[in-house]
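2024-03-11 09:14:02 DEBUG pipeline.ingest accepted 1 chain
2024-03-11 09:14:02 DEBUG pipeline.ingest length=297
2024-03-11 09:14:03 DEBUG pipeline.predict start
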Amino acid sequence: MSEFDSALATWRARIERKLDATLPRAAETPARLHEAVRYSVLNGGKRLRPMLVYATGQMLGVPLIQLDVPAAAVELIHCYSLVHDDLPAMDDDDMRRGRPTTHRRFDEATAILVGDALQMLAFDLLATDRDLPADARTRLRLIELLSRAGGSRGMTGGQALDLAAEHVAVSLEQLETIHRLKTGRLLQAAVLMGAALAPMLDRGQERALADYGDLIGLAFQVRDDLLDVESDSATLGKTAGSDAIHGKATFPALLGVEASRKRLRELLDAALDALAGFGPQADVLREIARQVVERKT
């Protein structure tokens, strides 16, 4: 196993333990809601956002036990967004990570409540978990980063723009704005939350990491759009071709497949350039960027 694979395996094991310990037990009242909460979170997935928290924090010398908390918080927000995005009023998807979406496995009302509960749990974790430094400013910075990334100027706003763009012609600039908000802001927040626990981080380093997070966030979405037209449902674990069915604004629809691949390579190169000042210590972040643009699911 390579050093990179070993690091990811360690981090995956940590985030699964932290999520399992953080979520209410399935038998706890209200049992049906808590069963659905655990179903929605403990169902595999890439755990990309926690990996970015760990990779950034470890590069900057932050203890792993402190990184468990923002890693779990950002993943809870991501899982809530998936549950809500899958609803009939949003993207209307039946499959997620190879099994029925939460509203299909339970019901729509339960799925809405699952998202609400996960969102609140993420911020409760950042406010109260004892593994974080006691310094209130650090906790507030983490809460600020996550709340802004998830709000109307971030992920939620991006989803609103994405819905408004269905069956509507958009420019490349508009499309990139949608996906920088909908997908990119939370990935960027994951990077910055890992960095926020490093006491010696300077403004230039923070700006470079913010640029890296923004670029891989957009690259993730370009790759997602390409997979929707090039892959199949069994491989993806969700319905392939759903973007075209719903009239979504996508990079292949706007630019074509080859031009989308070219844009993907440009974003990767720019993301790697953003890490130039960190030297070999940023190699794990570089490899994560490469995996984002080369992934098959």
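2024-03-11 09:14:41 DEBUG pipeline.report The radius of gyration is 18 Å.
2024-03-11 09:14:41 DEBUG pipeline.predict end
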